[in-house]
Specification:
mainly alpha; transmembrane; symport; about 0% strand; Alanine:cation symporter family protein
């Protein structure tokens, strides 16, 4: 297993994804007219007053909080620390770059997911990359491969990753045995995911804004106490990214170490291009009633995750002076806790333990919601198969709480790489559709109209789009 994981990571991360993610992100940035920069205000506008939910889907705000529940987790605390330990401060710069171009990628994949959504047997929306691979490209084989990778990675392996971070944090802060933590978190996760996607959305809507706000507030306090040192840290990040300045603590990895670790940890954190968030984007009732609006909601999620929360973690770690690049030095969650302890004393590890408990727990339930959509695509959306998946998720939580952090991250990297590769190919093939939807949306905005998707104006989509959904909803919106 170790040999297979190492091979996949070497090939996909070393030769495919590091460049593929940046290339695809740049491509969508170009064909959408730099949507994440020129239309950044619209990213906030589409979420500011969106609260609509129906029996068929959740609200755009709930979709954002569920995707943030998945994004904001281990990658924002342990992942940032790992990136700095292995790639130096320059890795943070490349995390920023991945996020900036990744906003366009996230916009594209979630727009497509909303466009190609379907109704399941209960009349509720489901969709995601597997659906636009089958209905947009016409390749069910791609959809099957993606769905299996999604269930393995997000449904199972990533749950173990998040549980690992919780157990390490609780052990460091409160000396709680890892098995006890794993059993407790597994039981809580089981209670929430038994209620399905709607239950997950209700929990995420309440917990995510509160936990993110508290964490950012602490970061603001720490930065304020060390404000004179912040410019120097920012300069160090940029210089280290290009090898102009050696990092402190004995780091000698060079530009490629910074680039590779920044891209890997950046993708793990914000998930842009991975094909995860589109699964929940498809469940939302769009407002404005256009697929592009949900693309912008998820593009905003990438910004919040990396440019705000990951940067907060990086500054707190680098301002602490706790970074040590020697092989046996603390990394992951332990490094983040040590850094906070240096800033706020004994309260630091306790706060990090509490933060990761909420961050990682919501990631577990958010990740499960993605896996449920993949099960629907595979025709396994019945009660029996879904119950089996839920039990496996709980088992992986317990297992992950007992594993070494390096082992868990390596397996997660491999599964994520396979999944992201398949998705990047799919969205590149469908890029013309994304470009047309973007032009249509902003043309209506310029005309002073509320954007509405009219499926009749897209004859090239053929039977791939469920016209019963869009024709009926567009008519109802016009009447209402």
């Amino acid at each position: 297993m170790t040999a297979i994981v190492d091979f996949l990571n070497t090939v996909l991360w070393g030769h495919v994804l590091v460049y593929g993610l940046l290339a695809v992100g740049l491509w969508f940035t170009w064909i959408t007219g730099f949507v994440q920069f020129r239309r950044f205000g619209e990213f906030f506008r589409v979420i500011a007053f969106s609260r609509e939910t129906t029996s068929e889907g959740i609200s755009p705000f709930q979709a954002l909080t569920v995707s943030l529940a998945s994004r904001v987790g281990t990658g924002n605390l342990a992942g940032v620390a790992v990136a700095i330990h292995l790639g130096g401060p320059g890795a943070i710069f490349w995390m920023w770059m991945v996020a900036l171009v990744g906003m366009a990628t996230a916009y594209a994949e979630s727009t497509l997911a909303q466009l190609y959504k379907v109704r399941n047997a209960e009349g509720q929306y489901r969709g995601g990359p597997a659906f636009y691979m089958a209905r947009g490209i016409g390749s069910r084989a791609m959809g099957y491969v993606f769905s299996i990778c999604l269930i393995l990675s997000f449904g199972l392996i990533f749950s173990a990753v998040q549980a690992n971070s919780i157990s390490v944090a609780m052990e460091e802060a409160f000396a709680v045995p890892r098995l006890v933590t794993g059993l407790g978190v597994g039981a809580l996760a089981g209670v929430v995911i038994l209620g399905g996607i709607r239950s997950i959305a209700r929990v995420a809507e309440k917990v995510v804004p509160a936990m993110a706000g508290a964490y950012i507030l602490l970061a603001v306090v720490v930065v304020g106490l060390n404000v004179t040192e912040v410019p120097g840290v920012l300069v160090l990040i940029v210089k280290s990214a290009f090898g102009f300045e050696a990092a402190a603590g004995g780091f000698t990895g060079g530009i490629m170490a910074a680039l590779l670790n920044g891209v890997k940890r950046g993708l793990f954190s914000n998930e842009a291009g991975m094909g995860s968030a589109p699964n929940i984007a498809a469940v939302a009732v769009p407002d404005p009633h256009h697929p592009a609006s949900q693309g912008m909601v998820q593009g905003l999620g990438v910004f919040i995750d990396t440019l705000v929360i990951c940067t907060a973690t990086a500054l707190m770690i680098l301002l602490s002076g706790a970074v040590d690049h020697s092989p046996d030095a603390p990394t992951g969650m332990a490094l983040t806790q040590i850094a906070l302890e240096g800033h706020v004393g004994a309260l630091g590890p306790v706060f990090v333990a509490a933060a990761i408990l909420f961050f990682a727990f919501t990631s577990i339930i958010g990740n499960y919601s993605y896996a449920e959509s993949a099960m629907e695509f595979l025709g396994l959306g019945g009660r029996g198969p879904l119950m089996a998946l839920k039990l496996l998720v709980v088992a992986m939580v317990v297992w992950g709480s007992l594993q070494a952090v390096t082992t868990v991250f390596d397996i997660a990297d491999a599964s994520m790489a396979v999944m992201a590769t398949v998705n990047l190919v799919a969205i590149a093939i469908l890029s013309r559709t994304v470009a047309k939807l973007t032009r249509d949306y902003f043309a209506q905005r310029r005309a002073g109209d509320e954007p509405v998707f009219r499926v009749a104006e897209y004859p090239e989509l053929g039977e791939g789009v469920d016209r019963r959904i869009w024709n009926r909803e567009t008519a109802e919106r016009a009447q209402g």
